[in-house]
């Protein structure tokens, strides 16, 4: 039987983490690699019994099947937000995901929801957390800690296939769950993703703008949000769209190599998919924030409808598929439907592998973004 070792050796591993959870012999570990700023998967060949469970659940194992629709199958696409004004303001993009999680727990639809949050004491300042009836108050007490974390985190390394469960995950994580969950029992909530980001981008931002003692929030504090560094007393804050971090992220230099081969952006196998609605009018006029949601399955429709009916979220308007695609134009351009070749990506690989980024002034990343638009 095949194992994920083949995927790892070919640099196609997304580090979703599920292989480590399903391995019956604990032969697979998913660990933070300080040098690269990514999590990496390691297989202990001596402990492996070649059962094939890891490979059969791997989202990178079956190539790059792509839907006829860029958005994927769906019942509706809507713009929505949390009805809790503090959550809406401080979580990412209107806080709808935050309130959906709270609804799932309070309604006892599920026993737990697996997601991530900010934690300065965790690897790469981000921890995997299981939200249950015991701790769900954290969602409203510290919504900004649950705002977007631009770091690739192996959420499924903490997955337990017991009880009624929901998972908030990126497209690769949702795809892995779909392969594992043959009876379709897990509620899957996808977050649009163009690529995992190395924590080294965050390290550079902290080093050059503040210091290691500062906590980094990538989004939150309104829409489109702010990139914020704080040590508890001092605050360095920049609008997300104008931040150095956004330019570093957009340059693609700090993205995981394997993500270049992931065909999914909108997490097509999920029940609900959420994404930022980068509409020009929305960016100009909206201040509190909205989330765009793709309602895909009958179960997803029921969850969304009940959360709305019970006052957790509210909708703003319907969105067409064309509108959804238009707001994600740049990330979609560099999905695997297009080959990652050419001068720019060769340059990006050299900069990342040799760690030349340590010498690049932050203000130069805007020029890399312009170069990417021409040469990528």
Account of the protein in words:
- The strands form three sheets. An eight-stranded mixed β-sheet has the order 5-4-6-7-11-12-3-13. A three-stranded antiparallel β-sheet has the order 8-9-10, covered by helices on one side. Strands 1-2 form a two-stranded antiparallel sheet.
- The chain has 376 residues and is an alpha+beta fold.
- The longest helix has 12 residues, at 298-309.
- The protein has 15 helices and 13 strands.
- It is globular, with a radius of gyration of 20 Å.
- The model has no long low-confidence stretch (mean pLDDT 93).
- Helix 9 packs parallel to helix 15.
Mean pLDDT: 93
Major sheet: 8 strands, mixed
Number of helices: 15
What are the secondary-structure elements, in order, as H or E? HHEEHEHHEEHEHEHEEEHEHEHEHHHH
Radius of gyration: 20 Å
Shape: globular
Roughly what fraction of the amino acids lie in strands?
15-25%
Beta-strand segment tally: 13
Q: Report how far the terminal alpha carbons are from each other.
A: 38 Å
Strand order in space, largest sheet: 5-4-6-7-11-12-3-13
- Kindly name the structural category: alpha+beta
Helix content: 25-40%
Uncertain parts: none
